[in-house]
Amino acid sequence: MAEKLLKEGSEVLVVDNYFTGSKKNLTHLLSNPNLELMRHDVTFPLYVETNQIYNLACPASPVHYQHDPVQTTKTIVHGAINMLGLAKRTGAHILQASTSEVYGDPEVHPQSESYWGRVNPIGVRSCYDEGKRCAETLFFDYKRQHNLDVKVVRIFNTYGPRMSPNDGRVVSNFIVQALLNKNITIYGDGQQTRSFCFVDDLIDAMVKMMNSEQGFAGPVNIGNPSEFTMLQLAEIVLKLSGSKSKISYLPLPADDPKQRQPNIQLAKDKLNWQPKVNLEDGLKETIKYFKKLLAS
Ligand code: UDP
Ligand code: UDP
Q1: What are the residue ranges of helices labelled H in 53-159?
Q2: Each residue of 141-158: pLDDT tens digit?
């Protein structure tokens, strides 16, 4: 995101507490005078000057967001309040990175924005799911109550270069396991589905959403509608990496959604956006990145 905004000529202030992010991902940009880094946690107030805010703060991998679930809810909810307060004071446009998790374990397939979801309010994923739902509420209340120009995108599973090898989500796990010839860990029977979007496509969509017509708040699904089972994903990763890894089956985590696929008609209509990178091409890029990372 920082790379793209700098390329477009914006001045960028990156605010991160580096809980899951890495400063190394920004080293190639540090000499750019239009970039500033600030170590800060969004659960605390932030007084800066800005005209656009992308609120992306929060670990998104189940392993990381369940590590300290109370802090996860605080990051999402207190973080949203502080960023909305900042937007209110500065008059900035503000975009919220929401999530397909607001649909929970959906009984409607594929998921459209009009579907209200099926979320367990008291489970291990709830800190994230309900936190993100509450953040959406806050965004729309600040719009109604304070007339803020808010934008909400619901991000479906995304992957790509610059992920951490310890991220814990499925694409990076499978690739790292394949490259190290370790067992590929499938949770459950591997028949659950996800739809994977390459990171560059997501970034394009978020910037388009930020610059969309005044008053258009969404929420808008952003994702790649090509749907795969986890078993299919494992097989593609094994093929593309030429790995000798075997598949091993581990227990399915609680409340793991069985299926997930975005309906992206609204993004097509309102943002003139659709993903360009298919799974194989995106995986090739990501495998190349992890190969280099593991070699160093
Ligand atoms: N806030 C912030 N930066 C600002 C303005 C506000 O971090 O530039 C925080 C502030 O701590 C406040 C929150 O955002 O608690 C919500 O602000 P708002 O103005 O909506 O609420 P109020 O200050 O009236 O409680
Ligand atoms: N998964 C898996 N093996 C792994 C990591 C995840 O089979 O090593 C499964 C997980 O149970 C889920 C899917 O892959 O059904 C996607 O998981 P991820 O953590 O990437 O994201 P989620 O969409 O569940 O938030």
Answers
A1: 62-65, 69-90, 126-146
A2: 999 999 999 999 999 999
